[in-house]
Amino acid sequence: MQPRILELFPNPTATGNRGEYLVVRLPERGNWSLSDGYHEEPIPANATGVVALSMDPANATALLDDETAVAGSGGVGEPELRALDGYFPLAASGDRIALRRNGTAVAVVDYDRAPEGHRWRADWGEWRPRGYDPRPAARTENATVTPFVLPDSPEVPVEPLRAADDRLLLAGYTLGSERVADLLVAAADRGVDVRVLVEGSPVGGFSARSARLLDRIAAAGVEVRVLDGDPERFRFHHAKYAVADDRAVVLTENWKASGTGGRTNRGWGVVTGRSRAAAADETTADDLAALFREDAAADDAMPWSEFRNDTEFHGSGKANGSYPTRFETPAPSTADVELLTTPGNAADRLVARIDAADDRVLGVVPRTGGPDNRIVRALRRAADRGVDVHLLVSGAWYDREANRALVEALEGEPIEVAVSEPRGRFGKVHAKGLVVDDTAVVGSLNWNEGAATENREVLLAIEDRSVAEFYARAYAADWRGGGVHLPVGLLGGLGAALAGAGVVARREVAFV
């Protein structure tokens, strides 16, 4: 058994980080100590095995749990909690902790900022909030898939809600739509099991409009829960999805007029259900229902009544735009679907798909976090090896400056980057999606720092050429105002017609 630092918890949610601790593994008794380069603290001389160490063991006891015991001890017993008699703080802003024997470092952990309420473990190699377990990507084969875009098709995301007979689970960042509230209440009235889960601290505050709607929904017997407990597993519950019987709706848009109401945003969405060929298999809806139950049952999810009694609500505007329908929702197709989530697997899977691209990558997102963002770097790598790569970002006033800086930073590279010019077809870009060869990815994930590691996000990767082509056509029209179509190569996928003539077509069709 080698000496090792097994776990760090430098930033509990308690005032003054009360109860912070670390867990070490000591193969035998000896002259052990801890050092951060400024402080040196001896470990109790008779300590051996897996030991939890804290300056405040009274408060640390409540923070240690069975998961810590199993991870630290290899499943053979609980770690012993011992008091550090001297002063040895764990810096939340980052530190270098050394486990020493006879003054010589035998195990070292360097860490950056420790998010509040998160623990680091050696077997994870990352920070995770208490109560959170990453989920593997879940795959459903031969699913029925219907893609759509907003504001063109505002009826498509709510039709499954209207038709639900058995279960209706709605998860969102915010809920501000009268129409959606009406459908939830109507479903509850006809005996459907209806549940709602929303974020408690959205940017700008929790709106009075949303509170009024949730009051009405809860009064109809709907279970409404809010993710706002302490400690929180996620910085934001930013996912936007619904489960209606055996169908799932996954969106880039919020459940409000500007999003699913079709009043402002360019958004992407998809409805997926059970195919006849896979009638007995588990569906994406089942996987999302399991995710919903897990998130809604966690310690940081509180009942609406409890949240409401302790929250100040804020005013909010209402979108009233009207936009033409240019992209009719196509007939359903059959596709393989992969459910991706964050924190956890989504960023890795997106980067892997981009790194494997052969012909095209079309990305659309409001903001990226800059040229060194992990996904942007993957786009740049793809462009460098000859893949046609285009990235469309928001031109909204609050995104414009940063996105113009991105265009300038990537000028001269083979990747094409444009700031959106809606020209009356929609209000602003809010979609978050990718077309990678013949796969489309749709979901709630922005690319800014922390979204992939700290937020709850939900995405679907749909492996089907017709679905990818639908989004590619909408993308082509949105590129710099729709005045110029994308090159033939980007729209044609892997068609044989591209052999030979495709290169010429790409050169002849210019962007303006």
UniProtKB/TrEMBL annotation:
Span of domain PLD phosphodiesterase: 425-451
One GO term (biological process): cardiolipin biosynthetic process
GO molecular function, one term: phosphatidyltransferase activity
Database matches in CDD domains: PLDc_unchar1_2 (cd09128)
InterPro entries per UniProt: PLD-like_dom, PLipase_D/transphosphatidylase
Signal sequence range: none
Source domain of life: Archaea
Matching SMART domains: PLDc (SM00155)
Gene3D superfamilies in UniProt: Endonuclease Chain A (3.30.870.10)
Positions in coiled-coil regions: none
Protein name, UniProt field: Phospholipase
